[in-house]
């Protein structure tokens, strides 16, 4: 408790400011992580869409090659 007696209110103010800084840093990190996750999800979705399109195109090419009588 000697710190409180020597520094008085100032040390409490310092501690509050430090806590605020830490909270802000944590929030920034969380936001960055969320953004990364969103980007990864978007990339995965795009890849899936591309695969679907390619498969559909292949099916279309195959059906074109088949004789129309089938």
Walk me through what this model shows.
The protein is mainly α and 70 residues long. The protein is built from two helices and no strands. The termini are far apart. The mean pLDDT is 83. Keywords: Coiled coil.
Descriptive tags:
rod-shaped, 2 helices, 0% strand, 70 residues, mainly alpha
Give the CA-CA distance, first to last residue: 90 Å
* Share of helical residues: over 70%
Order of helices and strands, N to C? HH
Strand content: under 5%
Coiled coil: 12-58
Keywords: Coiled coil
Short description:
The chain is an all-alpha fold and 70 residues long. The chain has helices spanning 2-7, 9-65.
Question: Secondary-structure blueprint of this entry?
Answer:
Elements lengths: L1 H6 L1 H57 L5
């Amino acid at each position: 408790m000697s710190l409180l007696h020597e520094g008085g209110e100032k040390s409490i103010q310092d501690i509050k400011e430090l806590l605020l800084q830490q909270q802000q840093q944590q929030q920034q990190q969380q936001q960055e992580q969320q953004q990364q996750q969103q980007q990864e999800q978007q990339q995965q979705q795009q890849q899936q869409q591309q695969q679907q399109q390619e498969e559909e195109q292949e099916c279309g090419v195959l059906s074109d090659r088949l004789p129309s009588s089938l």
